[in-house]
Amino acid sequence: MVIETDLFHTMDYLETSPKLKVAFVATTTLLLFLTIYVAYQKLFHPLSKYPGPFLASLTNGWKGYYIYKLNLHEQLLNAHIKYGPVIRVGPNDLHFWNADAISPIYKSGRQMAKTEFYDGFTAFKPNLFGGRDEDIHALRRRQLSHGFSQASIWKMEPLIDGQMKILIEKLKRLAQNQEVFDFKRLIGFYVFDILGDVAFGRSFNTQISEMAPEIPAISDHIFLSSLLGTFPFRSFFKSVIPMLPIPRLRQLIGSRGKLKETCADCVETRRQQSSTSRSDLMQHLLDAKDPETGAKLTDPEINSEAWAMLIAGSHSTSGSLSLLFWHLLHDDQVLKQVDKEIRDILGDLPDDKISYPIKGLESSLNYTRVCIQESFRISPVFSMCLWRRVLNPGGVDIDGHHIPQNTNVSISNYALHHNPKIWGADIEDFSPERFLEADGKSMASNLLQFSIGHRMCIGKHLAMTNIWKTLTTLINKFEFHPVSSEPRVEMESSGIGEMRGPFLCTVTIKGH
């Protein structure tokens, strides 16, 4: 009776208060909608049978939150450990953990299309990375393949050596003064200047000035792009964000704007240079033709590909190099073997040589090669989920599961590279020897640091040339001494990651 009386009193009060009545109806409607939505997602949705974090099944905000926290890669791994090899990480998103999922997702061609996630990365026009049109992608790949080939990169070695010489002289001064320096920062400046020389025909001179506002701006762009790509209504948010009075958002938009200006200036400056004999990536972009039709790149297309080189060309390489050196310098036995292999097979660098030539390095230095592979495994800087959408009307089979049409699927590097079923129980140990074992070659095929299939990173040869030349040269010439002795390196990533915090070292010159 008391409950009924209270209910009647409530109804009477609502009748005399129209505003409260509207609020009551709106709240009730919203709660009903949410109840129906949750029930559908958890009980009736085609992906409802797949486990995963509760919030992830309801909203992409779960992914967005951990992108914001720079540790989505770790959260995906933890979710797989808790829930199993196939997890639901969005209302329509499945993330896989096993190597058997690689080929169906990334080697199925046009049956597995890129999703709207990539639209968040477009600044000019869609480029090789962000473009979702398969016909345009195939054309662009044909136009650019020669410029990014290993043969073309070999011709650019003198440009890399020019920046290597500056780095070596700087390390010699640091050794003479016995200074503590941030190795990560040093490598960042060095690789960024290589990018300027190799891609745009001019160094950014950050090794000399020790100032590179573009580097944190690149991190801001990747952060913003990953967030935009995760949520719907991307075009709306792109137009609204600049008007919001939120300092962090304005900083992100400002960083992207400054990078666009830098990129456009680099392209325009390179165009105005009269000589076309210089062998760099920008010249290849200007000269690029479709071998089938003779079609050349338009100005917006050149800007879009130059943008991709500016964003991805240095960030992933410098991050990979810093982490590789961290692992080697924190394992004396491994470092000694690498040093010995370089000296025994290549010999010491003579005084008149800046670095080892890239030809033959990977094939002749077997132990060094597996160290690079192990660093890619344990600390993959490209941790972004590369989402694909199932287009086949009948669905597709992935790792023993039949996945319905229009489902978004992905398998990301960090989680894959830390799957104990693939790599063994010692996944947290830096152990290059795992790649020397009987099944080492097949294990190496599960490394996805450059992705796989027809969308594989076109800049692979340039990145590996930088890594091989830098590692072998610096190990032969210098001894690096980490200031701290943390047992484990931490990564942070919104898509393309790096070592968390500085990497403080001192250095001495070998033979002195």
Largest sheet entry: 5 strands, mixed
Structural class: alpha+beta
- Structurally, how many domains make up the residues? 2
Q: What is the CATH first-level class name of the largest domain?
A: Mainly Alpha
The overall pLDDT average reads 88
Shape: globular
Question: The CATH topology of the largest domain is what?
Answer: Cytochrome p450
- Physical arrangement of strands within the biggest beta sheet: 1-2-8-5-3
What brief labels describe this structure?
54% helix, alpha+beta, Cytochrome p450, 3-stranded antiparallel β-sheet, 512 residues, 5-stranded mixed β-sheet, globular, 2 domains
Explain this structure:
The protein is an alpha+beta fold and about 500 residues long. The protein has two domains: about 1-45; about 45-510, Cytochrome p450, CATH 1.10.630.10. It is about 55% helix and about 10% strand. The protein is built from 22 helices and twelve strands. The chain has a five-stranded mixed beta sheet with strand order 1-2-8-5-3. The protein has a three-stranded antiparallel beta sheet with strand order 4-12-9. Strand 1 (about 85-90) and strand 2 form a beta hairpin. Helix 9 packs antiparallel against helix 15. The longest helix is centred in the middle third of the chain and has 31 residues, at about 300-330. It is globular, with a radius of gyration of 26 Å. The N and C termini lie far apart (about 95 Å).
